[in-house]
């Protein structure tokens, strides 16, 4: 009998052990009562060690300087980040502070994840000098839901040993690319792969032509896509463009197989490390002859989890964005400030690389198209790759995309109008 | 006295005999299956009939039942149907080539020549490699400008211009299939080889005495003896191939223009890229039904097999 009881007890213990594993997440709720031992949470997906150390040092310094609450930093790989936040939101235990792709603001607001911090931002003045495009990126229905860590954008890289004057218009881009393109060397490279990369690099062309997502089949957008797919067809650009990410594009450039490329500041350090002897410089993305220079806004932001202890975490935020401290933090990150005052620091304006990005950043526009931007982007990705692979003409491909995008755009505009 | 015990008596007997102890050992496994398999499947089915999007994911009470609306939405999407069609092309071509090439390798390694053991082990690397790495390697091999495959074809004069295998909507799906075939060959080989080695040598010896040549030996001894192995292998292969995701993600991300998307990839994109969780769940349900149907067919045939035997 003892044996039997023992056997059942063991089986039950095993089963209980399993359910305990599943329920582990619930334990944190008990610490919700406000006490001295309260721990705040900061989530991020930064995988470079340098950036992780900066963040850890900042939290440590805060605790030492102010005797503030403990802040627990958690790293979650980017591939699982959004899923993790969405799932956590459903469980009701969002982190107080988290880093996210600023472009996802509207989606996160729709998911009811971000706290409305308009009053606090206005009272503290932390966004008073922020670039207007960056402010718009964090605004949904007239309210602010986040603030930038840093900003970036895309510019034109070109080989100074091959090209004397960089192109400034689309026609010059084509001519220059054609003149330097030869066996084993593409004139121009950009990202075209599935995913956001392609759209990220294409939208500046669309905006430069004065077009927008209200009608992606408009003449200016079609002309831009015709220009790119034409260069692919002629062999001035790689036929594999349609499979290339921004990192693949950098590899084409750094291995000497492309004379010009579109890319962002995050690829400068890898480029310098992998091709230390290459002579290159930066210029603005070429514009349509009668249009304006345009670029696209990227970068990361801080958001505050909805229904968390905003008072407690805001104390840390104000410590972090204190101008002198923040300036050092950004330099350490190797990123550009999203702020016109910080951006005018000689550290950036005297640097041959940073000064172009700072200049290009002023013409950078956000992808502020509401919570369904991902659906619009997906339709545009399909159109871009369809035209770049020669499957459809630019006009036909964009007509298909417009059928999906235009209603979504109108829905977004209507919701903006309703909430303002 | 009645011939058979009443339910009450048999329950009593069950407890007296101590059989409940034996059954209690299945509890952990049953719980595991219930929590990690049955519940997610159930939840997915429920979700496919609900309106679940990014705006109501947090508050489950706002997720209204919408009947078949999610299914209607995906059935109206032409990319669902292209993914549906691609799934069958992908699965059938992958299975046919994985199986036949794997079979050839199995017959070859059955010869037990010198070095066969370690060569077999090396071949297994293809199966053990994370598919995301295999995908990246095939992406480079098949690239239009730097791909070694194109270089090879041009050197032997078969083509004059490189073929952009992954950058064309005509060839992207087939390129991904080639990568997937390469991954699956060793698995097929190892299962078939163990099956072949289980066939008694006496069968072949008596066949030789009766004057059978090697072709006849293959079709009248090897294949019939391997039938159970082949059935299991094809079923497993079907299921593994049906849910392939990572190699497509690594090689083409479903493109260009969605031309290399199969159902699991479509479902992933609906759920986690576009945040249409309801429609993603509906697409997964379609996959689930297809696999369930096939499993039913398999069970029917393997039962029949047992009856015949």
TrEMBL record, chain A:
Q: Does the keyword Glycoprotein apply?
A: no
Keywords attached to this Swiss-Prot or TrEMBL record, sorted alphabetically, are: Signal, Transport
Q: Which Gene Ontology CC terms are recorded?
A: ATP-binding cassette (ABC) transporter complex, substrate-binding subunit-containing
**What is this protein identified as?**
ABC transporter substrate-binding protein
Would I find Signal among this entry's keywords? yes
- Annotated family: Belongs to the bacterial solute-binding protein 1 family.
GO molecular function annotation: maltose binding
From TrEMBL, chain B:
Q: Which UniProt keywords apply?
A: Cell membrane, Membrane, Transmembrane, Transmembrane helix, Transport
Query: Would I find rRNA-binding among this entry's keywords?
Result: no
Superkingdom of origin organism:
Bacteria
Q: Where are the transmembrane segments?
A: 20-42, 88-109, 121-142, 148-166, 173-198, 218-242, 281-301
Q: Where in the cell is it found?
A: Cell membrane
Q: Which Pfam families does the UniProt record give?
A: BPD_transp_1
List, alphabetically, the GO terms of the cellular component aspect.
plasma membrane
Q: What's the protein called, per UniProt?
A: Sugar ABC transporter permease
Write down the species: Massiliimalia timonensis
